[in-house]
Design a protein that fits this description.
Strand order of the largest sheet: 1-2
Number of strands: 2
Helix content: 10-25%
Structural class: alpha+beta
Distance between the termini: 35 Å
Number of helices: 1
Order of helices and strands: EEH
Largest sheet: 2 strands, antiparallel
């Protein structure tokens, strides 16, 4: 299964695992949140 920059190999259907820190960084970068801390928001 691939979701954005993350590819899950060896995870059975219906199973899950925690994301590694590098995977979280890759997802955040893919959606333009690189460098922002969790919970912080851009001013409108």
């Amino acid at each position: 299964i691939r979701m954005g920059p993350i590819e899950l190999k060896g995870v059975a259907p219906g199973a899950w695992r925690e994301l590694e820190a590098r995977e979280v960084r890759a997802l955040r970068q893919a959606v333009g949140l690189e460098g922002r801390r969790r919970g912080s928001r851009k001013a409108s």
